[in-house]
Amino acid sequence: MKLFLTFAPLILPTLATSKSFLFAADQKAIVDSFTVPGENPLDFCSDPIKDILTIDNVDLDPNPPEKGKNLLIKARGNFTAKVEQDAYINLSVKYGLITLVNTKADLCEQMKEVDEECPLEGAKAFTKKVSLPKEIPKGTYHVLADAYTKNDERITCLEATVHF
Question: Global pTM?
Answer without folding.
Answer: 0.78
